[in-house]
RNA sequence: GGUAACGUGACCGAGUGGCUAGGUAGAGGUCUGCAAAACCUCCUACGGCGGUUCGAAUCCGCCCGUUACCUCCA
């Protein structure tokens, strides 16, 4: 079953074929590291983590690039045009890169907890100023950008006049954008030939800390330039997939495409543009003013007023996977509790696999021949059919909710078989092996859900020590020796002292 | 104001012109020292009003509501 993905560029699902099989180039817009990531920020990385994992499962060799934006995103409400990062740095009396480093580390920690594999390349915007200046120069050379008051702007009208399709991705029309500008007063508009033009390079004001020399004086790159420059550098002018949140579709990705097309190597950049939908909380968008803005660390620690308790990273991952990535998803306590139980059920399934797999050792796993006579499918065949579903649904534009539903169907059958030896005997070893392998592969390798141990090792140890003391008091020395030996295997030694029983790590 | 989505049972969410998704919650049952898990059964919904159709939750129109983008944002 071929993988199809919904391409925003064409507004339809398309069969996915890499430009240069087996290689796949994937670019995802990464975080702006000027504060902690919130729950909504986690959706994209999780979605594209599953996509990467699935592509790899299909045998593709994926180069996954996700940038770190540590420069160049202007504060919308700051008429000084001050950089967000710089503002955060000033407030805390820190070096801007110190702020960026701090939040980058925290971002990595949160995503690792969420089971997201690290990208293969994680380029920083501040480390690619040369490339961004180069791209700006390319666009200038083609006459599709102009200098104004020390800044360089992309000339949208000229670009479109020469055949460009600014607005193609987001379905916008330049004239409507102009008409709809309405009451908003945007800073620096008078420097531009048209309000729809956007900055490739901005002149730094004297107060600006983050600044780099350029052919046009000291300044910093525009809001959209880094993704074009870095995707080109690491994936080529044309690559396979570009991802990001729906809110980045316009203007960010629209501008990226324009920059790519206006470069010396014209291309839309990615062939497939994928957009994940947003997260709402109790039916409302997440926002600071509404007080439902939850950072990932608040979520994991349970310190958010919007939620009654802490939820684990895997609960959040499962929660996101319950919705298709193009649908909005609503977060609430009830929804999270449901997700947590569903997730645990899936994990208990992993343990069931071990039990069912015990009997397979040494068995012939050659698939039985297809039935020669028409008739109702055999039990083995039925199991096979169930096991085929999860991957089928994933190949349909990454339909994770249907894949999960299919996994639960499979799990139900496996549970029934585990409780019913007679029925289990009717299943061929090959079919059983296939079902077990599929379940594990889809759950852990592709969906990236891993067992999150809840039991505390120390409490379990305390429990064991309690049994030890009871056995000792009852002079049940066989039992005592048994417990000692078992703990020894775990690297724990029990020490009887005058004041009671203690434990220590074995020093052997 | 402009643009684009969405509105599904108690909750979260798939689906989509006729064939009950799934998870969670609730009710009953099997199993069981207790409990849990598991399994079985039940709860059968698609914002409102019109229209198209043999048949619509699914297509069309209008209305209501929500969200996103238009401005940094996943």
UniProtKB/TrEMBL annotation:
Binding site for Zn(2+): 29, 227, 252, 256
Catalysed reactions, semicolon-separated: tRNA(Cys) + L-cysteine + ATP = L-cysteinyl-tRNA(Cys) + AMP + diphosphate
Cofactor, free-text remark: Binds 1 zinc ion per subunit.
Presence of the UniProt keyword Calcium in the record: no
GO cellular component, one term: cytosol
Pfam families hit by this protein: DALR_2, tRNA-synt_1e
SMART domains: DALR_2
Comp. bias intervals (Pro residues): 368-377
GO biological process: cysteinyl-tRNA aminoacylation
Keyword vocabulary terms for this entry: Aminoacyl-tRNA synthetase, ATP-binding, Cytoplasm, Ligase, Metal-binding, Nucleotide-binding, Protein biosynthesis, Zinc
UniProt subcellular location: Cytoplasm
This enzyme's EC code(s): 6.1.1.16
Tagged with keyword ATP-binding: yes
Binding site for ATP: 288
Cofactor(s) essential for the protein: Zn(2+)
Record domain Cysteinyl-tRNA synthetase class Ia DALR: where: 389-461
Disordered: annotated segments: 361-381
Gene3D superfamilies: Cysteine-tRNA ligase, C-terminal anti-codon recognition domain, HUPs
An annotated Gene Ontology molecular function: cysteine-tRNA ligase activity
Chain location of the short sequence motif 'KMSKS' region per the record: 285-289
Motif extent ('HIGH' region): 31-41
Subunit structure: Monomer.
Protein family membership: Belongs to the class-I aminoacyl-tRNA synthetase family.
Name recorded for this polypeptide: Cysteine--tRNA ligase
Lineage: Bacteria, Pseudomonadati, Bacteroidota, Cytophagia, Cytophagales
């Amino acid at each position: 079953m071929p993988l199809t993905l919904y391409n925003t560029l064409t507004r339809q699902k398309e069969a996915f074929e890499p430009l240069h099989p087996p290689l796949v180039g994937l670019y995802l817009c990464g975080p702006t590291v000027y504060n902690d990531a919130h729950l909504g920020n986690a959706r994209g990385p999780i979605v594209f983590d599953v996509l990467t994992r699935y592509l790899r499962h299909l045998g593709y060799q994926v180069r996954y690039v996700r940038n770190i934006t540590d420069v160049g995103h202007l504060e919308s409400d700051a008429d000084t045009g001050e950089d967000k990062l710089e503002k955060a740095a000033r407030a805390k009396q820190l070096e801007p890169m110190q702020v960026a480093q701090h939040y980058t580390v925290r971002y990595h920690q949160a995503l690792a907890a969420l089971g997201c594999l690290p990208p293969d390349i994680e380029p920083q915007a501040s480390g690619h100023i040369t490339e961004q200046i180069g791209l700006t120069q390319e666009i200038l050379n083609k006459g599709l950008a102009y200098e104004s008051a020390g800044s360089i702007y992309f000339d949208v009208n000229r670009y479109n006049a020469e055949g460009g399709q600014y607005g193609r991705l987001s379905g916008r029309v330049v004239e409507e954008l102009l008409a709809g500008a309405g009451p908003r007063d945007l800073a620096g508009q008078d420097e531009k030939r048209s309000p729809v033009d956007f900055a490739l390079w901005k002149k730094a004001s004297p107060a600006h800390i983050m600044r780099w020399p350029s052919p046009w004086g000291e300044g910093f790159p525009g809001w959209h330039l880094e993704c074009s420059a870095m995707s080109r550098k690491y994936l080529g002018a044309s690559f396979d997939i570009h991802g990001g949140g729906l809110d980045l579709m316009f203007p960010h990705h629209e501008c990226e495409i324009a920059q790519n097309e206006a470069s010396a190597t014209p291309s839309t950049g990615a062939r497939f543009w994928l957009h994940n939908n947003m997260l709402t909380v109790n039916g409302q968008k997440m926002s600071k003013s509404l007080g439902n803005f939850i950072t990932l660390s608040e979520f994991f620690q349970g310190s958010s007023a919007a939620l009654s308790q802490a939820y684990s990273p895997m609960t959040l991952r499962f929660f996101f996977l319950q919705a298709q990535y193009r649908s909005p998803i609503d977060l609430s306590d009830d929804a999270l509790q449901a997700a947590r139980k569903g997730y645990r059920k899936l994990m208990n399934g992993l343990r069931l696999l071990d039990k069912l797999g015990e009997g397979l050792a040494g068995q012939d796993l050659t698939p039985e021949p297809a039935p020669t006579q028409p008739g109702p499918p055999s039990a083995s065949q039925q199991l096979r059919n169930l096991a085929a579903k999860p991957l089928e649904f994933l190949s349909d534009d990454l339909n994770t909710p249907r894949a999960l539903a299919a996994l639960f169907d499979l799990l139900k059958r496996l549970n029934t078989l585990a409780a019913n030896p007679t029925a289990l005997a009717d299943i061929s070893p090959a079919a059983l092996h296939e079902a077990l392998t599929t379940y594990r592969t889809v759950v852990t390798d592709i969906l990236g859900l891993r067992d999150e141990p809840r039991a505390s090792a120390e409490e379990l140890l305390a429990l064991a020590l309690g049994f030890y003391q009871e056995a000792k008091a009852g002079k049940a020395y066989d039992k005592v020796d048994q417990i000692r030996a078992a703990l020894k295997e775990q690297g724990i030694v029990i020490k009887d002292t005058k004041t009671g029983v203690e434990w220590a790590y074995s020093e052997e």
